[in-house]
Amino acid sequence: MPIRIRRTGHLVLRVEDLERSKRFFTGILGLPMVGDNGKGMLFFSTDVKDNHHMLAIRQANDGAPLPNPEQVGMEHVAYELGSFTELQEAYRIFKENGVRIRHTVFHGVTKSIYFYDPDGNMLEVYCNVPPEEYRKSVPNPYGFYGGIEAELEGMNPQKPGTVAP
User: Fold this and answer.
1) pLDDT per residue over 56-106, tens digit each?
2) Total domains, the chain
3) Could you count the other beta carbons within 10 Å of the beta carbon of residue 54?
4) By the 8 A CB rule, do 53 and 77 touch?
């Protein structure tokens, strides 16, 4: 019988500059800091009742190499938002704060923004698209159906068959 994992508990990242990353995760992503072990490791969670920490960051050694997007290992971690309006707000905040955006995309199941933290780790924020909506427009709910910048900027309404609440 296989192990029964309940959920992903948390992610730990080594960072080049602990204070810079703390400002990014609290000030831009809005993750509340809930702990500090006093030894160069900070903890963040949106709900300590359900998850004592979702993310931890720790100071890397001086001169440690930055992430290489071509190496084997974790590609990205994703954070779910509650609505398309919240995704638009995240896009605005990223633009205002010079956050490097990799791309935006309608996947079918989600509308997503892929971006980088200050150390070059790729992250994603997304909102879910209801099945009754994406089934109108895509053959594969896990596909890649193009960028959504114009929708995120409010220049175009959400396309029929892609509408996220």
Assistant:
1) 999 999 999 988 888 888 899 999 999 999 999 999 999 999 999 999 999
2) 2
3) 21
4) no
